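Hi support team,

I submitted a single chain yesterday and got back a structure, but I'm not sure I'm reading the token output correctly. Could someone confirm the output below corresponds to the sequence I sent? I've pasted both exactly as they appear in my results page.

Thanks,
R.
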Amino acid sequence: MARKIMVTSGKGGVGKTTVCCNLAVQLARRGLRVIVCDLDFGLNNVDVLFGMENLANYDLIDVVEGNCRARQALVKHPRYSTLYTLTSNRIPESCVSPQAVKLVLETLSPQFDFILLDCPAGVGAGFRRAAACAEEAILVTTPHISAMRDADRVAGLLQSYRFSSVGLVVNLVRKEMARRGEVLSTEDIAAALHLPILAVIPEDEKFYLDNISERSRAFHILADCLTVEKEEKRGIFATWGRKR
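Hi R., thanks for writing in. Yes, this is the structure output for that exact sequence:
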């Protein structure tokens, strides 16, 4: 059965979808079977980041409405043979129930190792839909105060769900700014949010122009956090349960 992991953020623009897609690539390069499910119905762009926007014949809504089977809606990545996307549609959030999405993912789960849920930023209906379908969560933030404030709210809400694990990815990090005290350090961020850091992603202009980076050491580390043995993983991807 696939591990279902929601990738979320407090505010938009922190690189949540980019993190989700790059993690999926690193998992697929390990030979793992991966689905990236785009649950951002308003601003869905997983297929764009993968360069697959013209390849989908069906989407998640077609499956929910019974227009096709779940497997038919999956689109295989042209380069990574074990990586698939399940695109969404630009429809009102209220049109799709969490139960309907969960049923689709449970149908696909036995055939895959990971299902990554790219959910919209914030704590609205899209967040609740993803949380209802997921078993684990990754919170993405940047070191900036505005992002941190929203991330703190999301971290607090994640505590109300029975996730087996929750981890933190700090994105767009510029070490020289942290050294000058212009932004929070990653250690301060982890302490403030009461979450273990899974990976620190440096700001890299070329990387964000390309969207996907096979050579990024940070995403190798993030994938390692999800694939190492349980005994090793305990100190990396901590079980949720710490009091806030």
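A quick pointer for reading it: Residues 230-244 have pLDDT under 50 and may be disordered. Let us know if anything else looks off.

Best,
Support desk
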